[in-house]
């Protein structure tokens, strides 16, 4: 009830932190989605408010990514952050299923690991790397919430070198994911290129992708990404815009 009122009022960041405190029990936010229950814990009310903000404003995108999952499926979450998609997917695919969560940011990883533990997600495999076009070191800029592409204005202390891995290479020994969600803050095309074999497999039924037009490289635009998705055999089912982000849902 409180969450519904908060969404209706479009409350600001401070107000969201207050009502997240009201919603949570001991700093843990209880969530229900697609018939499963999950708990999310963070290191601060600010982080908890961010989790609630995503659950409130991206509910349709979350459900689009997960609604087609079946018992025993594999789900791929590239840019899993605090684990909203991964934790819910873990419960949907059950003990015979599998979730691969990919996240390079140390702070997000700490929160994600705790959420994996408190939800008992024994079917969740965590990869602390950055998916990219090819395997090798890449530079990312870290902020308090996550990692994104390095820009010329980033202070030196914010830029970190992380291990980049082509998704097709990293996933060689796991079943083809039935569904994949990708949210990588401007690295979308590089990640898609490294996952082309996986995404082109007919066993991959659903792709949900966040496109960040303002963060894309100069030679890549939204049409380039749409063409790639279609070339993998997907049909684009829907697109929606939230702030400066495009949510693309594709299926086959």
Name the descriptors.
four-stranded mixed β-sheet; seven-stranded mixed β-sheet; 13 strands; 10 helices; Rossmann fold; disordered N terminus; single chain; 252 residues; alpha/beta; 29% strand; globular
Give the termini distance in whole angstroms: 36 Å
> For the report, how would you describe the main beta sheet?
7 strands, mixed
Instruction: Give the full name of the CATH homologous superfamily of the largest domain.
Output: Vaccinia Virus protein VP39
The strand order across the widest sheet is 5-4-3-10-11-13-12
**Unreliable segments (pLDDT under 50, ≥5 consecutive)?**
1-10
Strand percent estimate? 25-35%
Annotated CATH topology of the largest domain: Rossmann fold
Instruction: Give the name of the CATH architecture of the largest domain.
Output: 3-Layer(aba) Sandwich
Helix share of residues?
25-40%
Whole-number average pLDDT? Answer: 88
Gross morphology is globular
Give a quick summary of the entry.
The chain is of the alpha/beta class and 252 residues long. The chain is built from ten helices and 13 strands.
Q: How would the blueprint of this fold be written?
A:
Blueprint: H1 2-9, H2 13-23, E1 28-33, E2 36-41, H3 45-57, H4 59-66, E3 74-78, H5 84-93, E4 98-102, H6 106-118, E5 124-127, E6 130-132, E7 136-142, E8 147-149, E9 159-166, H7 167-170, E10 179-182, H8 188-194, H9 196-200, E11 206-211, H10 222-231, E12 235-242, E13 245-251
Helix pairs in contact: 2-3, 8-10
């Amino acid at each position: 009830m409180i969450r519904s009122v908060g969404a209706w009022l479009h409350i600001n960041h401070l107000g969201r932190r207050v009502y997240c405190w009201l919603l949570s029990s001991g700093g843990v936010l209880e969530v229900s989605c697609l018939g499963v229950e999950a708990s999310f814990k963070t290191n601060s009310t600010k982080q908890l408010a961010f989790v609630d903000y995503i659950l409130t404003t991206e509910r349709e995108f979350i459900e689009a990514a997960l609604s087609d999952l079946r018992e025993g499926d594999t789900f791929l979450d590239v840019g899993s952050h605090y684990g909203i998609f991964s934790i819910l997917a873990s419960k949907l695919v059950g003990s015979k299923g599998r979730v691969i969560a990919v996240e390079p940011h140390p702070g997000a990883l700490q929160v994600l690991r705790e959420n994996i533990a408190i939800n008992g997600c024994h079917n969740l495999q965590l990869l602390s790397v950055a998916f990219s076009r090819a395997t090798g070191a890449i530079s990312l800029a870290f902020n308090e919430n996550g990692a994104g592409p390095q820009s010329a204005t980033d202070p030196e202390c914010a830029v970190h070198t992380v291990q980049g891995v082509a998704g097709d290479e990293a996933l060689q020994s796991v079943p083809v994911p039935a569904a994949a969600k990708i949210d990588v803050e401007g690295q979308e095309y590089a990640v898609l290129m490294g996952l082309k074999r996986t995404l082109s497999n007919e066993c991959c039924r659903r792709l949900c992708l966040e496109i960040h037009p303002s963060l894309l490289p100069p030679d890549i635009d939204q049409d380039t990404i749409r063409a790639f998705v279609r070339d993998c055999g997907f049909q684009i089912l829907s697109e929606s815009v939230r702030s400066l982000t495009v949510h693309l849902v594709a299926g086959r």
